[in-house]
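pasting for ref
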Amino acid sequence: MDPVKTILVIRLSSIGDIILTTPLLREVAAAFPGARVDYCTKEPFRLLLAGNPHINALFTTEKPPAGRYDLVVDLQNNIRSRKLVRKLDAGTTVRYRKRNWMKLLLVKTGIDLSGEYRSVVERYREPVAGLGVRGDNGHCELYPSTEDRVFASTLPECDGPRFALCFGAMHASKRFPPVKFARLLSLLSESMPLQILLLGGPDDTRYAAEILQNLPSPLHERVIDLSGRCSLMQTAAVLERCDGVLCNDTGLMHMASAFGKQLFVLFGSSVPAFGFLPYHTPFELFGVPGLRCRPCSHIGRDFCPEGHLRCMNDISEDAVVGAILEYFNTVRQ
């Protein structure tokens, strides 16, 4: 293979998937010192990569890259990314193998051929492993701007741990019910003076309202609802200042992992076999093992096909609260 001086990495969406490419960016830059590494994504996710020191230029599908690249790493591997590559003067192109057939086999039959757990980060690395790219055991990376960190610095001071609740998710089968979140927060606050931050996008505000409606009135003064009020990278800067995070299987889980935060993760229809556990950050995982209907989808569903949502409803709030309290009590000793 000729010397590699120009590299393009492609991942078009979504939040978590893009954040999970950041270890590979660091590793590619280390494997090809002095090479120019560019990145192409969709415009809504561009800011996730802004400030990344391993990226020379950021492109979008609206303003795509052009010209010569010695190496193209297509981590999206779909019709749109292949069309984008065809318009380039690409030397070597390697692609991420999604293995969707294996996920569908697990969903449809319950047969798990995934073997020992492998993170999607490791799978992203596979196409370039033969080119000398090696894992470095680091975690994901995000780089909030000075303005983003100034925004986060305006949070009120607190007399206890600052605790983020990332309560949203695109699909209902990945969302812990707001009523159960409210009970969980009530139990937590009975034992520890937490400052609780509700984090989510504009589509999550109705779930925040439902959580607040089900909280005891005295607890409201300890809860700051930031859902729908922060940009992506302002949310990242807020997570950077938190002492722990409770989250569904969502992009904000991976965002928090970029800062090495202690995570408490709720998996409903998700299962570890899909490869999306938090990467190289401490976490505790809560789910309902043994459900024959789980997983019901490899991406999540807007409704429970069985009508009971046991994968979420059967997760014990007391067990989650116990783990969170044990963590903070240990840290504070």
